[in-house]
Design goal:
- About 55% of the residues lie in helices and about 10% in strands.
- The chain has helices at about 10-20, 20-25, 30-35, 40-55, 60-65, 85-90, 110-125, 125-145, 150-160, 290-325, 345-380, 385-420, 430-440, 445-460, 465-480, 490-510, 520-555, 560-575, 580-590, 600-605, and strands at about 70, 75-80, 165-170, 185, 195-205, 210-220, 230-235, 240, 245-250, 255-260, 270-280.
- Helix 12 crosses helix 17.
- Bound molecules: flavin-adenine dinucleotide.
- Flavin-adenine dinucleotide (FAD) binds near residues 201, 202 and 443.
Length: about 600
């Protein structure tokens, strides 16, 4: 049976030493006013979160996988044994309200804290954690663009966890391409709308954890234009609330079926049929995509954290197993009295473990950096600082989503590999981590689509401004440490890669503007570009972490070997993982040419491309 211990020591290192969160939070009046900026308080909350997650949520993970969710003939869904009781305790302890607005019953804690709770929940049970995760996304969108009337009625219930939320975008024929959705909305003339259509793959779309479910639904209002410009966002509750907030009449939205899927069995993935269901407009007519992006951006970071959470828990279990499992002799011997040594001695096993450790710790640093940037973006008194932080979050959100879920899946597979055949059978729980990690690369916009978002929207359409700002920070760090005895080699590699990122961007940008094939050139380069970008960001974070750790070692402050572990993991990262950038640079430069094969000869596809 797998185990999990929240990595509190590392979380504290990132928070206090890498990000120096104390002074940053102290400069944000919102947290000062709410008395939530104090790092001692934050640490206590994180410790309590770890206790809750380790004891209440983690034991449910395998049960959830085995039992899955069950739908009855009326469309009601039962979650696995123990899910409901743990959810009640979660709400009773106030966890859903952690970073929510005090005006609606929230505790007003920094995002830094809720991001950490999320990582822990994802390590313990992604399937369980998705229920409050989706609610949090719905909270964010409603809080940002909902009318006061909607906010006053719904937010306190969502913040307390009494009601949960969903995001309803996908339809059978429309996943990536939301511009072609068919769900319709018609105006009843009394402030309400009738919503009709079918949404599929809706996470937490139906379940028994809460008394009401608040669906945020994309639909096209009668008369609105085709494409994404004609989509609006509607709130459609499962039960229509009475004016006093109690649960009223059942609305016409029913769960038609549940998907049978590869992983996250404990989370209900529902087909929802809306049949003239009563809904309320959220935000402005035809601005639904923009509004939904608030929820999607939160969900993208949340998905990145799923990659991190699963990477962390699978690494922890693989490490414990590698210390215990005796196979083959090693010279020199570790256990002379036994006929074999622990597999942890073999360099290839160390490679697998260190890969996971290096990705996990850099991923945690990135996630917490973004969380703190979100705090600055939302609450800094200086508009320029808010914009700077917002730009960084916008630029790095697709990187966090895709790079962290790709690395999380890779780590889950490598950790499974450490178990040999025992990783493939159910008993040890490793195959569940692999199955659960796979979806992170697919939903919330596939990682291919995240890459297009990064390269197309966030870099090229922006004229490279956000990228230049980040690259400037990296170059400055690299230049000021190039003679450093310990990290000089790392920043050298980093500086070159940051420069190369700029030149690769220019090459792709020029190809993009070179004619009708330009879009295909961007499309062909995007996935490799995002991976290159991810390594540059992780390289920056690893070099900084190594620098801080080395200073502690030099000052004789490494009592438990924590800082030595950082320094040596950084060394591994730059020796074994960062050089992937060299191969990526070559594949990025290779462009679309080798992909533009003859459709008939290679794919047996008669139809082929039609020239516009
Ligand atoms: C378990 C699960 C839970 C989910 N939860 C939710 C939810 O809560 N709410 C919700 O609304 N949806 C949800 N989804 C849907 C999910 O977000 C979509 O599956 C995803 O966005 C991809 O859409 P699709 O499956 O239709 O694939 P498609 O859009 O058909 O894409 C197929 C492939 O083509 C690629 N592709 C498409 N267009 C391009 C392009 N222009 N350039 C390059 N490649 C392209 C894609 O990257 C992908 O690899 C969930 C899905 C699953 C499986």
């Amino acid at each position: 049976m797998p185990t999990y211990k929240a990595p509190l020591r590392d979380i504290k290192f990132v928070m206090t030493e890498l990000l120096e969160a104390g002074p940053q939070l102290a400069s944000l009046p919102f947290y000062q006013d709410n008395d939530t900026a104090d790092l001692d308080l934050i640490t206590q909350v994180m410790e309590e979160a770890a206790r809750f997650v380790e004891t209440e949520v983690q034991p449910l993970n395998q049960i959830g996988d085995r039992e899955g969710c069950v739908r009855d003939e009326h469309g009601e869904v039962k979650t696995p044994t123990g899910f409901k009781a743990a959810y009640k305790k979660f709400c009773d302890a106030g966890w859903p309200a952690l970073d929510a607005d005090p005006q609606y019953g929230g505790q007003g804690m920094p995002h830094l804290v809720s991001m950490t709770l999320n990582e822990m929940l994802n390590s313990a049970s992604v399937a369980w954690g998705m229920y409050p995760g989706l609610s949090h996304g719905a909270y964010s969108a409603l809080h940002a663009v909902g009318s006061d009337e909607l906010k006053n009625l719904y937010l306190p219930k969502i913040v307390s966890g009494q009601w949960s939320g969903t995001m309803c975008l996908t339809e059978p024929h429309a996943g990536t391409d939301l511009g072609i959705i068919r769900t319709k909305a018609s105006d009843n003339g009394d402030g309400t709308y009738n919503i009709t259509g079918t949404k599929i793959f809706i996470s937490a779309g139906e379940h028994d954890l809460t008394e009401n479910i608040v669906h945020l639904v994309l639909a096209r209002l009668d008369g609105s234009p085709e494409g994404t410009k004609g989509i609006s966002l509607f709130l459609v509750p499962k039960f229509i609330p009475n004016a006093d907030g109690s649960v009223g009449e059942r609305n016409a939205v029913v769960c038609g079926s549940l998907e049978h899927k590869m992983g996250i069995h404990g989370n209900a993935t529902a087909v929802l049929n809306f049949d003239q269901a009563k809904g309320w407009l959220v935000g402005e007519i035809n601005k639904g995509m923009n509004h939904m992006f608030i929820m999607m951006n939160a969900a993208r970071l949340g998905t990145g954290l799923q990659g991190l959470g699963l990477g962390e828990v699978s690494y922890q279990n693989a490490l414990a197993y590698a210390k215990d499992r005796l196979q083959m002799r090693h010279e020199p011997r570790v256990l002379p009295s036994e006929n074999a040594d622990p597999i942890l001695v073999h360099p290839d096993v160390r490679r697998m473990l260190l890969t996971g450790k290096a990705y996990n710790e850099a991923g945690r640093a990135l996630a917490m950096w973004l969380a703190l940037s979100l705090d600055v973006e939302h609450h800094h008194p200086d508009e320029a600082k808010r914009k700077e932080a917002g730009d960084l979050v916008a630029l790095l959100t697709p990187v966090a989503k895709a790079f962290m879920t790709d690395n999380g899946f890779q780590t889950a597979v490598l950790s499974q590999q450490v178990f040999g055949g025992h990783g493939y059978i159910q008993e040890w729980g490793m195959e569940q981590f692999v199955r659960d990690a796979r979806i992170g690369q697919i939903y919330e916009g596939t990682n291919g689509i995240q890459s297009l978002d990064l390269l197309g929207r966030k870099v090229l359409m922006d004229g490279g401004k956000k990228l230049q700002k980040l690259a400037g920070t990296l170059q400055e760090f690299a230049e000021s440490h190039e003679d450093d005895e310990h990290i000089g080699d790392y920043v050298n590699q980093l500086g070159k890669a940051a420069q190369q990122l700029g030149s690769l961007t220019m090459v792709i940008g020029q190809k993009a503007m070179s004619g009708p094939e330009g879009a295909d050139e961007v499309n062909a380069a995007a996935v490799d570009y995002l991976r290159f970008f991810g390594h540059v960001v992780y390289g920056y974070l690893w070099a900084r972490m190594a620098k801080i750790a080395q200073e502690k070692i030099d000052a004789g402050q490494d009592r438990d070997g924590f800082y030595l572990s950082k320094v040596q993991t950084a060394k591994f990262y730059f020796a074994k993982l960062f050089p992937e950038t060299k191969a990526l640079a070559a594949t990025i430069k290779a462009g679309n040419e080798s992909l533009a094969v003859d459709d008939k000869a290679v794919f047996g596809w008669e139809q082929g491309l039609v020239t516009a």
